């Protein structure tokens, strides 16, 4: 008898790819994708159920299909397409998680719960330690936005884990997911021709490749391998760190340093015309940055990411095409200058 | 010997090393091993290379540096420490200040171990944290094993724009147990000034009187990491901005821990903000080993207080000794 896996939020790219990936697992018999809107991408052999996780109907889905693994990927920072604004996203994140957990509690066959969380949990503040571990409590609790959703969602999940100790609960806190088809706010930001930055700050950023994100989710959703444990909370991020100034140079996009209040206004203006999501939280990330420790991911979860932060970013930069100041062009200019200067005294 | 000169990424640090060698050589009797390694090969090679070639090399090195910076092809560590930028730019800015302006006399730098983690604990003074920067420059320029000091800074540093970006690139991080322990476990030398704002913002009348050493958190961090504690006494920093008053209301309005009033600042404007050119001495003391204690010792408050007092007394006594030896504040 194979496993039955339920995946929420399959209308998103990453969840859709996860569904296709887990279908090829021989131990999996059935995959059920759930979302409030039909996905634009194919789900191959998976069944799609149009259901809103904010409604109690989800409990019936769980009971009728005999699901044993729930992969909750419907925790997102931004709305998908034109599916309402921030309020709807927050409701899906928080109320949706509550309903889903309630349904899981009533479903005795559920054995495993995997939640896609985010390192937004830690916030970004100057008074926090430079590197967050899984057990670092955020010093300044986020006052709103996606970070607050994540903190609340994880709070409910801890409660669920206490009430159902027989269910293996795995929370994966992903760093910024980037890759050739990333559609996150940060990916949108890096697609701007000129990158507005906050004057006087150079945040440290960490990325995780889409492929690595999927691989980590797969490890968490299957039986633990020998010597590893896949329940608990894990930070998932590529090795190494890139500074925002470095990413801009590697992308070949000029930066426009602005004073902090100006950035807030510019963000509001950009958001109004729908160019990019520039939430206050995003601005905080681009001011103070965030880096997490990944020792637990390696030693306990037994997962080694294939891409480092720099490689993830290089892959992303290739997919976006050169900017206004392509780095190899600059390098050639400097080389030519070097040749000219070194040739002169030889004459 | 000639081969030793053409290591591609070494030209600039080596060039400046010979430039400062006389200062170093007269002040600190170095052990023969590092002398033979760093000073030996570059010293005879340098006169021959003087003139066009060395300039060319430096130019080529500078252009390579520019190329890496422009294309973003350089590495920073998890804390944002940009070793290349620190070595080639930030330290070249600090060097004249350390060597020409404050004429820092560095003693006992060999007390910092050549490898593995260590916690350098120093006194803090001078209204602006120039003593931290000079301490960093002292370790960077004078340590025989080319070690780098990673300073722990107050949270105010990371709130301020520009300062926060530069501090991270220079390898500083927030003074908290998590960061300090992580750095020590990675085998870095961590510098801490446990007096904090109480030390740096004390009135001129209290100069060279050590303040309370926080709650001794640095001792338990060192114990957990098993890293030795190197006490360090800095003389000369107290007099750079003699703080005769503190505009408390203004400080509160600006969100600063204190607002200094010196004989020249703020009365003379930006000119008054120039530090006085005092003569500095930085003395590193004998390391205090912490690896002989059992793991639970880090949670023993009595031991913490004893070790904190031991470090504090060592620094205070060294300060008095150096002050007695000092001929004048400025020479």
TrEMBL record, chain A:
Record-annotated NAD-dependent epimerase/dehydratase domain positions: 5-237
> Could you tell me which SUPFAM superfamilies the record lists for this protein?
NAD(P)-binding Rossmann-fold domains
Return the Pfam families for the record. Answer: Epimerase
Matching InterPro entries: Epimerase_deHydtase, Lipid_A_modif_metabolic_enz, NAD(P)-bd_dom_sf
User: Which PANTHER family does the record match to this protein?
Assistant: BIFUNCTIONAL POLYMYXIN RESISTANCE PROTEIN ARNA, NAD-DEPENDENT EPIMERASE_DEHYDRATASE
Specify the protein name: NAD-dependent epimerase/dehydratase family protein
* Organism annotation: Streptomyces benahoarensis
Automatic annotation (TrEMBL), chain B:
Recorded GO CC terms: membrane
Arranged from A to Z, the UniProt key words for this protein are: Acyltransferase, Transferase
Provide the Phospholipid/glycerol acyltransferase domain boundaries. 118-237
Q: Which SMART domains match?
A: PlsC (SM00563)
Give the source's domain of life in one word.
Answer: Bacteria
Whether Hydrolase counts among this entry's keywords is no
Q: Name one GO molecular function term.
A: acyltransferase activity
Please give the Pfam families that the UniProt record associates with this protein: Acyltransferase (PF01553)
Q: Does the keyword DNA-binding apply?
A: no
Q: Where is this region: Disordered?
A: 1-56
Q: Return the PANTHER family for the record.
A: MONOACYLGLYCEROL_DIACYLGLYCEROL O-ACYLTRANSFERASE, TRANSMEMBRANE PROTEIN 68
Name-wise, this protein is: Acyltransferase family protein
């Amino acid at each position: 008898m194979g496993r039955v896996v339920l995946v929420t939020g399959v209308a998103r790219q990453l969840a859709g790819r996860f569904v296709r990936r887990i279908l090829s697992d021989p131990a999996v018999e059935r995959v059920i994708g759930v979302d409030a809107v039909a996905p634009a991408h194919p789900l191959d052999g998976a069944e799609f159920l149009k259901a809103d996780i904010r409604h109690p109907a989800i409990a019936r889905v769980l009971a009728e299909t005999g699901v044993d693994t729930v992969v909750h990927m419907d925790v997102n920072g931004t709305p998908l397409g034109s599916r309402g604004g921030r309020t709807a996203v927050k409701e899906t994140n928080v109320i949706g998680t509550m309903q889903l957990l309630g349904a899981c509690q009533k479903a005795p066959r559920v054995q495993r719960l995997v939640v896609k969380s985010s390192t937004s949990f830690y916030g970004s503040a100057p008074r926090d330690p430079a590197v967050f571990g899984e057990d670092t409590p955020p010093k300044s609790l986020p006052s709103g936005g996606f970070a607050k959703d994540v903190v609340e969602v994880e709070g409910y999940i801890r409660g669920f884990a206490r009430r159902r100790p027989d269910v293996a609960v795995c929370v994966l806190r992903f760093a910024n997911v980037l890759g050739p088809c990333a559609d996150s706010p940060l990916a949108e930001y890096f697609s701007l021709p000129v990158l507005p930055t906050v004057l006087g700050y150079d945040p440290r950023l960490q990325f995780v490749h889409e492929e690595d994100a999927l691989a980590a989710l797969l490890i968490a959703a299957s039986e633990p391998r020998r010597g590893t444990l896949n329940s608990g909370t894990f930070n998932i991020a590529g090795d190494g760190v890139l500074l925002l100034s470095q990413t801009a140079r590697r992308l070949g996009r000029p930066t426009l340093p602005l004073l902090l209040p100006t950035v807030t206004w510019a963000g509001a203006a950009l958001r109004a015309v729908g160019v990019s999501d520039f939430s206050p939280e995003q601005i905080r990330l681009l001011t103070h940055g965030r880096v997490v420790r990944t020792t637990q991911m390696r030693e306990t979860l037994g997962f080694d990411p294939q891409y480092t932060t720099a490689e993830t970013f290089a892959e992303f930069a290739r997919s976006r095409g050169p900017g206004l100041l392509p780095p190899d062009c600059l390098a050639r200019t400097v080389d030519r200058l070097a040749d000219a200067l070194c040739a002169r005294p030889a004459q | 010997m000639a081969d030793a000169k053409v290591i591609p990424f070494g030209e600039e640090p080596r060039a400046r090393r010979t430039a400062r060698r006389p200062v170093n050589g007269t002040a600190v009797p170095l052990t023969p091993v590092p002398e033979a390694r760093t000073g030996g090969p570059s010293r005879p090679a340098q006169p021959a290379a003087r003139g066009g070639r060395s300039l060319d090399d430096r130019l080529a090195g500078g252009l390579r540096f520019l190329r890496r910076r422009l294309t973003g092809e350089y590495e920073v560590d998890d804390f944002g420490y940009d070793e290349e930028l620190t070595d080639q730019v930030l330290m070249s800015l600090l060097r004249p200040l350390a060597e020409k302006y404050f004429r820092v006399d560095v003693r006992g730098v060999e007390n910092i171990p050549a490898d593995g983690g260590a916690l350098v604990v120093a006194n803090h003074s001078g209204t602006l944290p120039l003593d931290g920067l000079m301490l960093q420059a002292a370790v960077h320029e004078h340590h025989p094993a080319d070690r780098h000091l990673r300073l722990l800074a107050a949270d105010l540093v990371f709130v301020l724009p520009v300062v926060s970006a530069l501090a991270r690139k220079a390898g500083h991080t927030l003074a908290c147990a998590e960061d300090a322990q992580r750095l020590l476990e990675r085998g870095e030398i961590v510098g801490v000034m446990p007096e904090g704002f109480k030390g740096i913002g004390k009135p001129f009348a209290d100069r060279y009187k050590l303040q309370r050493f926080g709650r001794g958190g640095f001792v338990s961090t060192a114990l957990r990491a098993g890293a030795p504690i190197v006490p360090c006494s800095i003389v000369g920093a107290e007099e750079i901005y003699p703080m005769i008053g503190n505009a408390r209301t203004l400080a509160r309005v600006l969100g600063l821990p204190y607002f200094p009033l010196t004989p020249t600042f703020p009365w003379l404007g930006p000119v008054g903000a120039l530090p006085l050119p005092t003569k500095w001495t930085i003395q590193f003391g004998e390391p205090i080993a912490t690896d002989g204690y059992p793991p639970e010792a880090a949670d023993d408050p009595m031991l913490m207080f004893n070790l904190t007092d031991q470090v504090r007394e060592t620094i205070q006594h060294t300060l008095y000794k150096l002050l007695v030896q000092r001929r004048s504040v400025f020479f």
